[in-house]
Amino acid sequence: MPCYRCGARQTDPDHGPSPWRRGVRSDRQVLVCPDCQHGRDWTADLDHCTSCGATALVCRLGEVECRTCGRVRATERMAEPPAPSDGSGLSEEVAAALSRVLGGDGLAT
Question: Are 95 and 107 contacting, i.e. CB atoms less than 8 angstroms apart?
């Protein structure tokens, strides 16, 4: 899942926890890349818990749960299919990942 603000694709760190942050925006789970976390208050764009005001929300199976106070509510709209992507660069990223994992040309023998 890319960053909802800039579209950067998530990469796993070599060591330690991921610098990417999760949130909920318009009842959908989103990721925020480290670059978009700098500058203005990036949490202002996220949904807030109606009970405690926190942005530590998780969206799953038609409900949103607050990790701070534990409040659970149903999502306000039915899940819509994701918007189609042109896939630009994705096939190259997949090929590079396969090459790293499998070695060489990325083909298993």
Answer: no
